[in-house]
Amino acid sequence: MRYARHYLNESQMNVFKWLIVTATILIALIMITPFYGRAQISLTLQPGLGQAITAVNNAEAAGAYPNEVIPLVALLNRALELNQEASTLSLNQTGEHDQLISGASRILANVTNQANDLTTKSAQRAYSNKIITYASGIIIAVLGTFAYVAIAEFYERYRIKFTFQMKVKRK
Amino acid sequence: MRFISTQNRRTIITLFLVLAIISEMGAYVALTPRPTQQFFQFYVLGKNGLARDYYPQNNPDLRLASNISWYLGVTNFMGNMQLVEIRLKLGNETTTPPNDTTDTPTSAPELLAFDRALMDNETWEFPFVWSITNDTTIAGTTRILTVQINNQTYQTSDWSALKGYNFRLILELWVWQGDTNTFEFGWGNSAGRRTAWLQLWFNMSSIGPPPP
Description:
Distance between the termini of chain A: 153 Å
Radius of gyration of chain A: 39 Å
Oligomer: heterodimer
Largest sheet of chain A: none
Order of helices and strands of chain B: HHEEEEEEEEEEEEEE
Mean pLDDT of chain A: 84
Radius of gyration of chain B: 28 Å
Mean pLDDT of chain B: 89
Shape of chain A: rod-shaped
CATH class of the largest domain in chain B: Mainly Beta
CATH architecture of the largest domain in chain B: Sandwich
Low-confidence stretches of chain A: 30-37
Order of helices and strands of chain A: HHHH
Number of helices of chain B: 2
Strand content of chain B: over 45%
Largest sheet of chain B: 6 strands, antiparallel
CATH topology of the largest domain in chain B: Immunoglobulin-like
Shape of chain B: elongated
Number of domains of chain B: 2
Number of helices of chain A: 4
């Protein structure tokens, strides 16, 4: 089997050469161009971020303990890191950019769900704690009253006993 | 019980009510969170983590590629989790600084922002190492072209000063507002609106880095 060899003519070679040079310059420019501007919170992330923060604040207000909130805050910071990472990518890396932003969105949705669950759990716990604390107050009052009655009873018995043991002396 | 039959029952009922009121008041105090002052602490420290040695040899006349090491820090005392952003802005002698009375940020161009979610009472401190990597002087005006911050090069625009004197780095603290879903300069508390910002001045000399 024979293969036909195809050689580029001079004008095709020139076009090909210029294409390579242009591509090299473009790649070099993209590689060395410094960042210009700031790492903004992506517009795609803003509603999700707002929801996640509100959900975490609600969990705190419902009485969640700091050790329960710490993992959620760590996840929020992870989402912010992904956003930061996405903002440093150049314009030709849209695929990677979208991947990072969707990863951050998933994390934020996860934070919102976890925070909502934590809010329910914390609210129930806070309600139980409130009932227990106020009930303890009543129990303390009952115990205090019983203690008073018992002491008073004991004191009166002592006084009666002491009175009957008294001896009357003529002056 | 003989005591109850002989003593006035009113005494016992009164005693129970007094004890109940006192213990319920104690329960209320224990369950009610104490009001605290809500604020942020925002600071910049020198290379040793102290409020000094901000510039090499304490000389704010900087040269190209001389590294300046600072630490930026924010502490959250707002009573709950907060999302904060430190915005780095580039100013010179004529830049209008942020206004504490009207709570308006500076209009100086913004170069960079750092975001972080902070727990209540949490401090976020991170190194901020920067150097000026390229500048140009035309007709007595020095223009800073690129700055390297934490190993990342940033191109600046419109950052110039006459004879290279009185450049400023302005750092503003922005806080996420849940109702608007945006960052706003400063924060609100029971006493009204508060802002926090810092600025550090320096001069720029176009000579190369100092000898080691």
